[in-house]
TrEMBL record:
Region (Disordered): 375-395
Superkingdom assignment: Eukaryota
Keyword terms of this UniProt record: ANK repeat, Cell projection, Cilium, Metal-binding, Repeat, Zinc, Zinc-finger
Record bears the keyword Cytoplasm: no
Designated name of the protein: Ankyrin repeat and MYND domain-containing protein 2
Coarse class of the protein's main subcellular location: other
ANK repeat positions: 45-77, 79-111
Keyword presence, Metal-binding: yes
Domain (MYND-type): residue spans on this chain: 320-357
Compositional bias of kind Polar residues: 382-395
Cellular component GO terms held in the UniProt record: cilium
Source species of the chain: Python bivittatus
Amino acid sequence: MALPKKGDLNEEEKALLEVIGKGNTEEASKLLGSKTVRVNCLDEHGMTPLMHAAYKGKVDICRLLLRHGADVNCNDHEHGYTALMFAGLSGNKEITWMMLEAGAEMDVVNSVGRTAAQMAAFVGQHDCVTVINNFFPREKLNYYTKPQGLDKEPKLPVKLAGPLHKIITTTNLHPVKIVLLVKENPLLAEVEAMQKCYKVLDLICEKCMKQREMNEVLAMKMHYISCIFKKCILFLKEREDKLDGLIKSLLKGRERDGFPVYQEKIIRESIRKFPYCEATLLQQLVRSIAPVEIGSDPTAFSVLTQAITGQVGFVEAEFCTTCGEKGAGKRCSICKMVIYCDQTCQKMHWFTHKKSCSMLKTTYEKQMVESAKEKNKEAAQTAASTLTSEEQLTSEPEIHKDMEIKSIGDQTEMIPNMKMTASSPVVGNFLEEEITSANIVNEKVQESEE
Ligand SMILES: [Zn+2]
Ligand SMILES: [Zn+2]
């Protein structure tokens, strides 16, 4: 079959592009089965079907095209865009990942001199930037599964390459998450395997720093994971509860405010131990972390995550309190101050969270009262300026005062600001609501203690 020329599409190929646009996987599959359809055909702009599917965020069709031999590195686009660039522009993490797995070159630049990661960053698709920056080709790891030079055996047993690859390409660097990833694979979760793995990580780290195009970010990531692995070894050797013991230690909050001190210290220590002290990234990290008192913001985890994933606008509030996974949406129903991925994460955290939950609840309520006061101050100002008669001004507060006294009762301890708010009618209303919900919550606390 002749090499595809730009815009030289037959009817079936035109139909293929059309069904890709509609996201009709079944139809696309039928067309790709036809002998006359070339999987790498080019439209008039030099776009392949894969580029179209990637740009439009059609995950299943991308997978289908790759299975049919689509060339992920085809570079005939009029402005030098690759399928990976289109994936990055689309903001679809899964497709971006798929292109990389299929062997997409990361360093190719388009006609304006931008790489796929830079293009994605340019349009604000930071999740895709993260995926690209954290990708580590499997072949690079497979190198260590073959004996090199005088070695009799490989540095990394073949069976460990898969699980290790999964860990080093993760974009969630939460120490608990890393330990969970280790734990889920019985081949990995033993001392000897962990030792081999951390040595390979140290070698990759060294390579990243010594190669011509130095990659400090990847070096730091490898070093950090290596440090967590060393902690795993320590717990596997010395603790009866093994990796569960490590997870518990990492999650355990201090008495005062539930802050996980051990976790913070381990991350700080890992960063400090980075063996290349001249690295700019190391100096940046140390500068951001050193002045922060343990327990204050930013945490070492958030600083490290920002540096390694390139994530901007990192808001800790959307990350699972237990494992750091992004997009956690389940809130503790009692305190409403911590969020989790799911019940598994909540259960893992409960042994320590139960000690600070009610205290956090008070903090939450205080915050709500404060913000309500702020809002009401504004509302009162607006209201005052729109009120026409004095009557309205004087009659309102009376009613609310009555209501408050009835409903508040002896709960003064729980909401310390109550006396102040008693003079403000609008806040009075709000408080009543708060107290009712607080009562419900109180009941819940008792339930869960039983
Ligand atoms: Zn709670
Ligand atoms: Zn989680």
